Every structure is written in C-alpha cells, then in structure tokens.
Amino acid sequence: MRKTYICLLAVLTFAVSSCNDWLELQPENNQVSDEYWTNKEEVEAVLGAGYVRLRETMEQQLVWGEMRGNGLTTGSGAISADIFRINQWDILPGNDFVKWDKFYQVINYANMVIKYAPEVVEKDPSFNENVMQSYLSEAYFLRGLAYFYLVRNFRDVPLITEPYMDDQTAFEVAKSPSNEILQQIKMDLEGAVEYAKEVAPTVWETKGRATKWSIYATLADVYLWTEEYDKAVAACDAVINSGQLGLLEGVVNNNNNWYRIFSEGNTNEGIFEVQFDFDKSQTNNLVSWFGTNQRYNVTEHTVSLFADSDEDIRGEGSSYLDGDFSVWKYLGSEAETGIPRTYSDQNWIIYRIAEIYLMKAEAMVMKGAGSYDQAVELINQVRERAQISAPVSAVSTELEMLELVMEERGREFVGEGKNWYDILRVASRNDYEYKDYLITQVLLTAPASSAPIIRSKLLDVNSHYLPIHLDELAANRLLEQNPYYDNLN
Q1: CB burial class (10 A; 0-12, 13-18, 19+) of residue 154?
Q2: How big is the CA angle at 295 (ends 292 and 297), to the nearest 5 degrees?
Q3: Tell me, what's the pLDDT at 477?
Q4: Burial class (CB in 10 A: 0-12, 13-18, 19+), 279
Q5: pLDDT the model gives residue 78
Q6: Contact at 8 Å (CB) between 59 and 99?
Q7: Which of 57, 244, 45, 211 is nearest to 138 (CA)?
Q8: What digits encode the pLDDT tens for the residues 276-288?
Q9: Whole-angstrom distance, CA of residue 345 vs CA of residue 348
C-alpha cells in the first residue's frame, strides 16, 4: 500500500475555473503539506483531483462489473491476457486488473479534504461554513463510493480514514471485515446528505459532482447489499420524489429518445455521470474498446433478453448492433442510424433514474409477497418507457420475482458495469441462499469446454471476490491474501 499512497503526494497549485475545466486538474509531482491548506481554491483543487482519479478507474469499473457476469464478453479484437482471464474465471494475484491503487487514491484525496477543509474556514473569509460542509459532503460521497467498489470486489479491504501525507504516516494497514467497511460507507453517505446540493450552478456539475440525489442513489444500492430494504425504498423515494429527475420519454418525434442518455449525456435522467468533453481534451476509450478494437462485445445471452419483444427501443441498433455484437450505445451518434460517433467523450454513467425504479422494485420483492405487485408496477414503468406494450405480471416465488428484476436490469444497463454485481447481490443474500442462481447465470455464457472447471470454482464463495495484487502484498506486510487465492500465483 506504500506504493499506492506515495503516488498521491502532490501540490495542487492551480485555480479552479467555473466550468468543467476543473476536471482537467492534474497533480504536480510534489507533496501536499500541512502548509498547503490556506484557501477555498486549494480545497476545491484537491476535491477535483478526487473526481479525476475516479474518472481514471473507468475501465476497472467496466471489467469488475461485467467480465465475470453474462452481459459482456471479450470481442474479436485484441484483448489483454488479464481481461481474458477474468472473463474465463482464471484470475491470479498478478493480474493487473485486480490492482486497487486508483480507488485508494480517490479515498486519499477525500480523506485530505475531510481532515483539512475545516481548518481553511478560519484562514479564508470567502470559505464559509456552508460551502465547507458542501465540499465535505462531496468528499464523503467519493470516499463512500470508492469503498463500495472495493468491498463488492475484494470483500475485506484496509479501512483508511486518515490521509497519507508524508513518509511518517503508517502505510501498512490490515484488512477490515466487509461489514465494517459497509458500516463506514453508510456513515459517510448518511452524514453527507444534509449539506449536499440539490442542484449546482451548471448542468455538468449537477450531474458530475455529488448531489443529494447521487448520495441517495448510492445509499439505496448499499442498502440492497446490507439487506435493509425499508431504507432502500426510502432512499429511492427521495430521488423519485425530488422533482429534479425523471425517466425520459421513450420516443419523441419518431426518434429514439432513450438513446439521448448516452449520445448526449447529462440528461434529466442522469444522476451521477463521470464527465468527459472533447472540446476540453477530455476523452475516453469507449469507442476503441467497443468499436475500433472490439475489446468487449455483448453476449448472445444479452441479445436473447430482447427476443421477446420487437418493440423494445433498447435492443438491436440501440444497445448493440446485430451481427458484430458491438455495444452501439457508446459507438453511435444516434440510435438505429449506423452513424458512428466522431469522437469519444461519452459520459460514463454510474447512476440514472431508471436504476432507482429497478432498485426500488428489488427492495419491494425482498419485503415479501405482499409487495410483489408494487415491484411489478415499477418494472413496467421502465418497460413502458422502452415502448414495450405487454406488461409483466407478478410470479409466485421470491427468486422468480428477482429474476424479473434482473432481466429488466439486463436490458436497461447493457455494458454499464452492473451485471456481475446484480448476480452476486442476488446470490449472496441470506447466507448465499441463491448460490445456484449465480452458478447458473455465469455458466450461461461459459464455453462448454471450461464450464465444469468454472462451476467447481464458483462453488467456493471465496472465488467470487478478486485476489489482492502481489504488489500490494509485497508492500504491506499486514495484508493477507483473499482465501481462495492463498496458493495461487
């Protein structure tokens, strides 16, 4: 972990502009000392660096959230051996895609703001208490979100709430149990709500920086994992009833309006989107990953989810292209036109309002059979927006109801980094009551030749989490490898 934190020592000496030039912040290779924290602009610069680091985790978010599930698979183009092995459940501790350093960089920048921002109030008259609390709210959100990715992928991880500022700071930290990590995440997010903004001065800030609604969205997700379903419903209702967000109308003037979520970005549907802007030299590799180099494709299983309705505006020509299985939502300028994007600056969407409807539906299912009709109503709202005329009806068992929700999530969030987490969340509830569900779902897209080996791995629940990278183990003697990987190298 020492290696992880040394790369964070930086002086951020630039001013913060009023537009999303702020997200071009890049730390210089010097140390953030105690003397650095003198004014509002310096606090905001460190906060901005946290968002920049989050942006740099985008491919890990994609790989961690998709490549162990059944929604995406490796494409026909060049693919790294590390990504291929994750997709094939041949994961070793030396795999570069199990490195967690960038997420801990996000956490460290958040920890810096949380510790030092209150001191700046006394030094800078323009930095009043309310503004400071708003910045703290964003820092707690970033820390909570980063830990949420870590706990879902590694289970037990080091819990660090103090910033790494110099070589005197202890960098060898043992893992904390996942339940403690989840408690810290809830504390961070629940505490962040009070001072969070509802809207920001610009659209990109409202969608690209933490607001009450992005915090509530993350809380709803966390509560689903901690099996606190009444709290999940309440968090979803806070977003749905905010008056600030809503499902886009599915078709406008005979055009596929759903597609605007991705082609345009920062729509009324977006809650939290990692920002990119070609005009400011802020680009990503989505066109390359899904198009030019065909690194990732949709699976035949994903295509099959759309087979029951030719009305669904999210299917062929929108989420994916028929034949080459490209994820068209990231490649095209408009749905069903075949016209490619000129450049790659699509926002990476972490939460949007359709997910709030489906998270609430999932929570209602888990509240019992008496809530199944309410769950189905929420699913059908998402389906109606997709122009599907035939509603789904409640089914008899909890697992069947959960499958209705998961199948709808599979249609709505193709390639958005959600698929594996959906499978794991359903399976692991109530002490892995539905472990067979996880095995069945993963094997839907496994090659027949390797299916028996993958199945044997999945029977051990420890294999559902990633190994700690060898570099981290070497740098931090207090770390212990995740149990499944003790004897692998």
Answers
A1: buried
A2: 100
A3: 95
A4: exposed
A5: 72
A6: no
A7: 211
A8: 999 999 999 999 9
A9: 9
In the DSSP assignment, the letter for residue 293 is S
Instruction: Read off the tokens for 409.
Output: 């999530």
The model's pLDDT over 403-443, given as tens digits with 9 standing for 90+, comes to 999 999 999 999 999 999 999 999 999 999 999 999 999 99
User: Do residues 244 and 198 make contact, with C-beta atoms less than 8 angstroms apart?
Assistant: yes
Please tell me the distance from the alpha carbon of residue 385 to that of residue 257, in angstroms, as a whole number.
Answer: 10
Q: How far apart are CA 420 and CA 404, in angstroms?
A: 16
* 75: nearest Cα among 397, 291, 332, 357: 291
- For residues 286 and 392, what is the distance between their CA atoms, to the nearest angstrom? 33
Rounded Cα distance, 25 and 17, in Å:
10
Contact call for residues 420 and 413 (beta carbons, < 8 A):
no
The residue assigned the tokens 């028996």 is 452
**Three-class HEC string of 68-119:** CCCCEEECCCCCCHHHHHHHCCCCCCCCHHHCCHHHHHHHHHHHHHHHHHHH
pLDDT along the chain (489 residues), means of 10: 39 38 46 76 97 97 98 88 96 97 97 97 95 98 98 98 77 95 98 97 97 98 98 98 98 96 97 96 95 94 95 97 92 93 96 98 98 98 98 98 98 98 98 98 96 98 98 96 86
Element (H, E) at 51: helix 40-55
Note the pTM of the prediction, 2 decimals.
0.94
> How far apart, in whole angstroms, are the C-alpha atoms of residue 229 and residue 378?
15
Measure the CA–CA gap between 84 and 183, rounded to whole angstroms.
34
pLDDT for res 488: 74
Angle value at C-alpha 150, between 105 and 305, nearest 5 degrees: 125
The residue type found at 108 is N
CB-based contact 411:386 (threshold 8 Å): yes
Q: Which residues in 209-319 belong to E strands, given as ranges?
A: 251-252, 255-256, 270-274, 296-298
Structure confidence at residue 9 (pLDDT)? 38
CB 365 within 8 A of CB 398: yes
Q: Of 328, 324, 203, which is closest to residue 258 (Cα–Cα)?
A: 328
Residue 453 contacts residue 446 (beta carbons within 8 Å): no
CA distance 422 to 419: 5
